[in-house]
Amino acid sequence: MNEEELLRQPETEYMSPAQLEFFRALLTTQREEAFERLDKSRAELKTLETAPDEADAATIEEERQLLVRQVERNRQLLTKIDKALSWIDSGDYGWCAQTGEAIGLRRLLARPTTDLCIEAKTRQEQREMHVRSAA
Q1: pTM (predicted TM-score)
Q2: Could you tell me the keywords of this UniProt record (predicted)?
């Protein structure tokens, strides 16, 4: 099944075995890609050397910080992907962790690791903004 076929399916097929398999394949591919990016960033980190010139040292440090951020982002993504794969196994994938409502295929295609429907995510972001503005 491809994305177009997925979106053409009736609502009664929501999180059917075929749809779950589509998302398992999507997440598995994303997991493999994240591992590749992680390995590449780690390898690049190992190749960075210290430079005797201050300007070169600053440039190298900037590159190092960028690579460290990339490593951390990919680690976090891998954790989210593994959680999403476990939700598929447990039968919870595609359902909002807060409301129990369907997350929706389009949202899952955009963010396959999400566990919140758009309404719950909006409420979460509004609470976070309120906490930040109160601080």
Answers
A1: 0.83
A2: Metal-binding, Plasmid, Zinc, Zinc-finger
